Each structure stands twice: as C-alpha cells, then as structure tokens.
Fold:
Amino acid sequence: MARGAIAEAHAWALPSLKGLAKGEKALCSWDEDAITLAVEAARDCLGPGTPPKLAGLTLASTSAPFADLQNAGVAAGALHLDTGVPCLDASGSTRAGLSALAQSLEAAAGDRLVLAAERRAARPGSVQEMQYGAGGAALLVGEGDLAARYLGRESIMVPFVDHFREADARYDYAWEERWIRDEGVARLVPQAVKSLLKRLGLGVERVAQFGLSGAPAGSDRMVAKALTITPDRIIPDLIDEVGDAGAAHAPLLLIGALERARPGDVIVVAAFGQGCEVLAFEMQDGGRRPARGLARAVEAGVTETAYTKLLSFGGELSLDWGPRSEVQPKAALTQQYRAGEQITGFIGGRCSACGQVQFPRLPNCVKCAATATQTPFPLADEKAKVATYSADWLMFYPAPPLYVGLVQFDAGARVLMEIVEVGAAGIDVGTPLRMVFRLKAHDNLRHYGRYFWKAVPTA
Structure:
C-alpha cells in the first residue's frame, strides 16, 4: 500500500501525515493473517517435499488471530508436520520473534522451526497506520550444515513502556517518540550490544552487519554511531518497503543480513521493547537457501493505491455488500477434525491400484472405482494450472470478483478452488498456479476463522 495514498485520504483533516508518506507498507488481503503469513514463510524456508523431523515449532506474534487456540498448531497442520512436534505460541512483546529464536537456538539438540508473523491493526489516521506493515519470517535452527553459527545473546528486561495494548483492545497506544528514542533506545541498546560483544571477546570492528527493530525511525543509525559502527554496516531497515512488522521485524532483518553476508561476517541484530534482546551470529559457507527469500518477496510486491481496500480488508470499513453477504458460515468442528489432514494439510489421495491422484480422498477411486486404495498424497507443492475459471461479481466476496475454477494438477488431481491475487492481466486456461494457505471464511458471530488452500497465478 502506497503511504502517499493513505496520507492523501487524510489530508483534509491530518495534513501532518504527509511527512510520513514516503515509500510503501506491506498490506494483508482479507484472507491473510499472522498464521497464513507464517505458513508461507515456513514453506519457503523448508522447501518442497517431506518436512524435516523437528524437535519443536514456535510461532511468535502480537497479532495472532486466536487467544485461546494454539496458532502454532494450525501452522503445523498446514505444514503437514508430524503430530508429535511440540508447538508453542510466543507473544507479549514485539521482540518476541528474536526471543523465540534465541530460546530455540539454546534448546536441546534437534532441528527447530521458528516463525514470526504480524498483521498489526492501526487506528485510521494514526501514525501507526502509516508505519505498521505486515510480514512473516521463518528460520530453521539446529546442527549440521549451517548458514550461520549462533554466537550468543544478551537480554535486558526493563519496565520501560514505549507502547502497549490491553488484552481486549484493538489498537496500540504509543508514547512520545523522542522520549522513547532518547531515554529508552539510546541508553539500553548500546549497553546490551557492548555487553554481548565483550562477553564474546569481539571488537566492534568485527560487526559486519547491525540491525535494530522496535525503535523509532533512525534509531539504528543513532545506535550504530554510539557503537562506532559505520553506516555502510547497518542492515537496511525495510521500513520504506515493508513497514514495521512488529515481532517479525527482527527476524526479517536477520534474514536480510544472511542473504547479503559473506563467510566470516559477524551479524548483530537487536530488538527493542521493554528492554532489549541482542543476538550475534557468524556467517558460514554453507546452509540451504530458500527458493524465494526476502529480497525476491519484496521485489515481487505490487503497489496498491485504493485506501478503502486497506480499510475494508482490515475490518475498519463495513461496506454494504447486499443481502448475499448476510450469512454466518458456522464451522463444523467435528468434520474439521475428521478431515483435518485433508483440509489443513491439503493431503489428497493416490490410488494404489491405478495411480490416479484425487482430492478429496474418498472410499472409491474416481478413475478405476477400486475401494480402500487411497494413500496420502500432498498437493500443496505440486505444479498446477487453470483448467476452467469464471469471475463472479454477483456472489458476495470480500475482494470482488470471486475467481473460481477447476485447477488441474500435473500429478493428475482436478480440484474446484478459489483463485486469488489475479492481477490486471487476468488469467486464462493454462495459466500456471501455485498453492497458498489462506482464510476460507470468517464466522463474525462466533469469531472463528476457517482455513483452506487457494491457488495463485505464477505468471
């Protein structure tokens, strides 16, 4: 979303927002939230195929959709992880992402997946609306072939409140920026970084890349100057392209550094928030790289200028969608449990008699009619293309038109699916597709979101 479009919409009442109108911020569609963002990041991190054996999964977020239902568990189901993988939600601070990463790095042996994601709400016309962005990050930690070696952490807990949000509140309340920067960031962050480097026996000259999240704009340069770190060693802060991604921001900075670093480089990333969390790493000459990564994800962004779309997607604007929208899609939790592997993990079936792949799995094969021959077949990473489609402007849909059609998988399955993120060029029969995990529908009466998979054009 172009910040200029937001500022222009408020210019009649809040002309001062024009001073914050530089760049863009990442925008969530109506069917995206912290869980779907985390799943998308995790799929890029892990790559296609069978997920690795994990000793734990943590999802850090201050804006996760569920307060009393494990968000990490939903993500684990979408990633088709083994049901024995311990899952944990982390929250309470925008430095939760970096804290969760540190705890996973210092845990017992075994590979662990750390996810951090945010879809932060902001009051229309506020400074936060201009600053906050959405994003997800995923990091796989463990032993073996490493992209970077963990050196250590420094954690300071101080009851310095820069912003807060009560449990039932929708928006953050932020204190005065200059006080946060001068009294909080300037005192706590350099102290924490110096303490960590001293304990590790590293001079500040060894720090090749330094990043800071959770602090007012320009704080990374101020802290770097206090530490005598030159400007060319500051990790690009992503503010002009993504915005402040909360708990996901420090992990995103680390990922950005990993994509640019050379073997031997020392990377230091700090997160400010009721104190400070600082982690240090040394880049190695190894490790698996994601297929897409951060830089390509940012580069692939499409600029949106319709400000009312941001309001509608975020629930800040209630449009009159007409009588067709007057439904409450109650989730059948019993069926969701019975078919959970198929619905959440997008696991179809392959007939052991004739090899036909189908979705959903049924007692009989759709090709040879053999009974009880279906073996699990994951479809989320399979190549697919448009077989048929229609664009419906009459049926209620939060982002009209509703594109729906038959998706033909190269593996053989043919599934009726929603097709989302159709750009100005549209789609046609044969358009390549990839699968994404999204909200299928939201029950506003019972406050429950149902998830499923949708198709996205890749060309």
User: Anything to note?
Assistant: The chain has a mean pLDDT of 95. The chain has two domains: 25-302, 321-347+378-457.
